[in-house]
């Protein structure tokens, strides 16, 4: 079996497994679509009988009866059209929301190091654009395929019953043009894949530029970012032009086939009408039925780019499925004040990459106040990530322990034992209250007030809205130092026995930093406090210091 065939089978299997969660909309679309086909064919038959009745050509159906039936069928078609639109709109958005929600939850449950391989703009593009393409394919395109086949067979059999020779000739014309059309579609999949990658890159450029708006303006690099965006958009437009060219050529060839079929059937009908072999109603029926044969064939040809788009989107979503999930473990708290014991710890990000940590042994006793220091690249933040178990050590052990001798290995299940304040501004958009409740959803206003005071963030209550003061994206509306103090307050609201502060006071002046550290140590006397810092003001409060050294590249 070729690699290409294996890939198609894998994509089809993934789509099939995914389809099971969205069967209701797909089935409803098929049912309504089949009823629409039946009503279309019924309208053709009623039209023929009514015209024959009006021209006195051997029908027992009265004109008024025929007109009445036409009105009924048309109103039925209108009702089915409304039902179809509602199914596509209401159930469609629910299905898309459901799949986006499932993907979001899965990404949040994946290993951090796997997710960080993808740009956030690319992840957003996959979550919105690719999910939309897959849902439309499963709930609309596949039902449309079934309906098109049913319509083709129904119209063909109807025409065959009326004139078998014409039906066979019309159908035999189509494969020739279908084959010609397919020759132009071979490169569509590669072009579509490339276009989707460029769309993601455009979104990434825009997202990063807006996120770092002030930085770009301060560096006076708006022109460079414009050029970067223009260049990527130009590449994207070229791919779209290429894709449109191939689609246009294919469509033109197909339209030639449809035109030939229509002209032939119309000429056939006119000649037979002139010879008295058919009625005028039959001629109208011929023309309508040929259109109903060609319509599903046209739909089927559109499935070539539809399949390509869906398979491209599926490939991109399957890549996210390859990210390893964190193990599902029950949260494991450790009773009482907790410490950390590190034995023989080694770490490098890739097998061939530089050693970040090598044979590290260290203990943070319960209730201690410790500092982790070292030059840039010495592994300070990496060690924090290992403690939080978002990274896994290649060798060595990290364990939590308490005074009674209880010990548990660090894992995602022990993450609730840590309160973490990352570097920089980590506020989310919303209100101050929203951000604080991330630390403890059950926190009272009084507890939030106490945490803010401990973090020297009383300025919040000087704002008109207090706890309900709005935060913009990445804490917009607050200074860097204010955002850091709110982040510290958020961590203080947790019930964790161990606190990790990764350069959490870097934006504070000396006096404020001193007040914050002193209040934290006083408020959390039983907690284990670990500060990653270069600041002398913090170091003087620490009872011990872990000095990390950058490992020589040549030794790695």
Q: Helical segment tally?
A: 16
* Overall geometric form: elongated
List the helices and strands in order. Answer: HHHHHHHHHHEEEHEEEEHHEHEHEHE
Number of strands: 11
What's the N-to-C terminus distance? 42 Å
**Global mean pLDDT:** 82
How would you concisely characterize the structure shown here?
The chain has 556 residues and is an alpha/beta fold.
Provide structural commentary.
With 556 residues, this protein is α/β, with parallel strands linked by helices. The protein contains 16 helices and 11 strands. Helix 2 (23-55) packs parallel to helix 5, helix 3 (63-109) packs antiparallel against helix 5 (120-162) and helix 5 (120-162) runs antiparallel to helix 6. Helices cover 62% and strands 11% of the residues. A 5-stranded parallel beta sheet has the order 6-9-10-3-11, sandwiched between helices. The model has no long low-confidence stretch (mean pLDDT 82). A hairpin with a 6-residue loop joins strand 1 and strand 2 (355-364). The radius of gyration is 34 Å and the shape is elongated.
